[in-house]
Amino acid sequence: xxxxxxxxxxxxxxxxxxxxxxxxxxxxxxxxxxxxxxxxxxxxxxxxxxxxxxxxxxxxxxxxxxxxxxxxxxxxxxxxxxxxxxxxxxxxxxxxxxxxxxxxxxxxxxxxxxxxxxxxxxxxxxxxxxxxxxxxxxxxxxxxxxxxxxxxxxxxxxxxxxxxxxxxxxx
Length: 171
Known about the structure:
- Helices cover 43% and strands 22% of the residues.
- It is of the alpha/beta class.
- Helix 3 packs across helix 5 and helix 4 crosses helix 5.
- The protein has a five-stranded mixed beta sheet.
- It has five helices and five strands.
- It starts with 10 loop residues before the first strand and ends in a 7-residue tail after the last helix.
């Protein structure tokens, strides 16, 4: 009996997320036989007049709806690396927590990337600026224009990182 390699699917759907309380970007890409293509992208917004708990509830429900709609094989999320404003850092951390809980409830593999890792993967340069990232996302996904707002381009960049990653195994 010979030792056979496990079979891997020829295509994968990756959901990329750029967490935020006011705006959470999402990008869904498909990797098939080495090619990466856009499936869907957009953003989730929450009204600043809502309570923090209501805003987080909106984000969590929207993430779960995205997961049910696109049935990703893996979810890639940007890590909070550094924020100058402590209040912003706390609210983004809360958003990430809701997002991670939504992913865990669906029992999906999770990949996390720092902004430095995203920049390095997308452009080959860890100090790339937002415009360089956006132009590379446009080029890699063969889009006619740069995705807007920035949160969407960032989420697509995170999804592309997930597409380049070896398929994780859920433990």
